[in-house]
Specification:
Layout lengths: L1 E10 L2 E10 L2 E10 L11 E4 L1 E6 L1 E2 L2 E2 L6 H10 L3 E7 L5 H16 L7 E7 L21 H10 L2 E6 L10 H6 L3 E4 L6 H10 L3 E2 L15 H9 L2 E4 L8 H10 L2 E4 L12 E5 L2 E6 L2 E3 L12 H11 L4 H15 L16 E4 L5 E6 L2 E3 L6
Parallel strand pairs: 1-4, 5-8, 8-9, 9-10, 10-11, 11-12, 13-14
Antiparallel strand pairs: 1-2, 2-3, 4-18, 6-7, 15-16, 16-17, 18-19, 19-20
Helix pairs in contact: 5-6, 8-9
């Protein structure tokens, strides 16, 4: 059975007015005539985008990844309703036993996608291999990594991304072996110098975790980790909620880092009303659009990827085609996923249908239509 979607389709080559056919969970064909990207949604036409890919998801729908159990099922369902069709379940710094318990719960979910849910591609292990002086909102359980320990955790659930502070003794030498094991090392929660960052990239580090946040800042005589990223990185993630990073800093990063891509760093508060929620062992409060610890420290976000896209287009003024690259295609390329993050024949049928205002109307994950709530 073939399903046809019609409208203005954002493809890797630009926007076309036409139709897209879905069959057996894949895009069977895409056809139409090119139009100017600024006309997308004009005349009430639907706007078809590749499903969003979020490599940094701590929670959503009132649940936290570190809870284990069925928490990830709720998280994956909630984010799918906002257009995220694939994600990495992200852990917090915690005692090793807690991390192991979370990964045991994640393993089966990574192997098989649940109905009405985003695909959980694997794990982003954000802690505990970070600098205790740059915890941000991470709990105080930072420790040094060993290759044997990471590989043992990887046996529980596939670790696709690992955040690491390269200046911690022993960490620089681990980057190459981790890369060879198929784990992308991201520099983050780091107090290292510019030289530490450059050395980590040369050793095989793939990117940076929530660029600008929880890392040594750029100064013209001490460029820090931010300086290393802006000068040398091919890839980095950033949080476009406009609280974590000033729009001017985002624009600077867009000029410098070809594969810059969006993440939400979302907590259990994503998709939920204001109130108190769990983030690892912390209690955090959602208020005025942000999520914070009791001392006011930003603690992840309440962001969803559809709002990230709107922020890029409507607040920062990015062209729709570039914004789509930052919420979908660039992350797919970073993860080595040739059949996701793009609307082309043969790709996985991950599709988001939006209106002219970029509000979600329909979502398809691997060809399955997700039940979304559309505002009247």
């Amino acid at each position: 059975m073939t399903l046809r979607l019609e409208g203005h389709i954002v493809t890797p080559e630009g926007v076309i007015a036409g139709h897209l056919d879905i069959a057996a969970g894949r895009i069977a064909s895409v056809s139409g005539s090119p139009i100017d990207a600024s006309r997308a949604g004009e005349g009430g036409c639907a706007v078809l985008l590749p499903g969003f890919i979020d490599t940094h998801v701590h929670g959503g729908g009132g649940r936290d990844t570190m809870e284990g159990g069925d928490a990830i099922a709720t998280i994956a369902r909630r984010h799918a309703r906002h257009g995220t069709t694939a994600l990495l379940a992200t852990t917090m710094t915690a005692p090793l036993g807690d991390i192991e318990a979370a990964l045991r719960a994640l393993g089966p979910v990574c192997r098989e996608r649940a109905a009405q849910s985003a695909r959980v591609l694997g794990v982003h292990l954000e802690g505990p291999y970070i600098n205790p002086g740059r915890l941000g909102a991470q709990p105080a359980h930072a420790t040094a990594a060993t290759l044997a320990e990471v590989l043992r955790l990887n046996d529980l659930a596939p670790i696709k991304v690992l955040t690491l502070a390269p200046e911690v003794p022993g960490h620089l030498a681990l980057i190459g072996p981790l890369r060879d094991a198929g784990i992308r090392v991201q520099i983050g929660h780091s107090n290292g110098s510019y030289d530490d960052g450059v050395a980590a990239l040369r050793a095989g580090a793939a990117g940076f975790t929530h660029l600008f946040n929880a890392m040594s800042a750029l100064h013209h005589r001490e460029p820090g980790m931010v300086g290393a990223a802006l000068a040398h990185a091919e890839h980095a993630e950033f949080i476009p909620d406009l609280l974590h990073v000033h729009p001017g800093a985002i624009r600077a990063a867009l000029r410098c880092i070809p594969g810059l891509f969006c993440v939400t760093d979302s907590t259990a508060a994503a998709g939920m009303p204001d109130g108190d929620y769990r983030l690892g062992e912390h209690t955090v409060q959602k208020c005025l659009g942000g999520v914070r610890l009791a001392d006011g420290t930003l603690a992840g976000s309440a962001l969803t990827m559809d709002q990230a896209l709107r922020n890029l287009v409507q607040r920062l003024g990015l062209p729709l085609t570039d914004a789509v690259r930052r919420v979908s295609t660039a992350a797919a390329e970073y993860l080595g996923l040739a059949d996701r993050g793009r609307l082309t024949a043969g790709a996985v049928a991950d599709v988001v249908v939006m209106d002219e205002a970029l509000a979600v109307q329909r979502v398809f994950v691997e060809g399955e239509e997700i039940d979304v709530v559309v505002d009247a």
